[in-house]
Design goal:
Layout lengths: L1 H10 L4 H4 L5 E7 L2 E3 L2 E5 L2 E7 L21 E2 L4 E2 L9 E6 L3 E6 L7 E7 L3
Parallel strand pairs: 1-4, 3-9
Antiparallel strand pairs: 1-2, 4-7, 5-6, 8-9
């Protein structure tokens, strides 16, 4: 979780996520060496699809997702989301309806982290 917290601190108030190309749909691959790309930027209503291309189980989970919310995929009001476990070859898409910075990590390897920036273009 320390890596995810460090990425969140580094991503606040400008920085690398701001340089990411704004696109309405993004695909993030879960690879053996981490997420690719690590940072993405989508507009409000944009969609991010996580695809597990590795041989291992993978997740993309916001820090602070309560353990008991097993059926919740997205909690925009708190900038939280959870793909739950993705088997090799499996994918899941999350739609982001609230602007903000969504830091996430792998619950299997919390040194793996990423950032989704959601911007309001209105």
């Amino acid at each position: 979780m320390a890596a995810a917290a460090a990425l969140g601190a580094a991503g606040c108030g400008g920085g690398p996520a701001d340089d990411a190309e704004l696109t309405p749909k993004t695909t993030v691959e879960l690879r053996d060496d981490g997420y690719h790309p690590v940072r993405a930027k989508v507009p409000v209503g944009g969609r991010v699809t996580w695809v597990n291309v590795s041989e291992r189980l993978g997740t993309a989970q916001s820090p602070g997702v309560p353990e008991f919310l097993y059926d919740v995929r997205k909690l925009d009001a708190q900038n939280l989301f959870d793909t739950h476990t993705l088997q090799p070859g499996e994918a899941l898409t999350v739609t982001f309806d609230t602007p903000g910075r969504y830091v996430y990590f792998s619950s299997y390897d919390n040194s793996t982290s990423g950032l989704i920036q959601v911007v309001d273009e209105r």
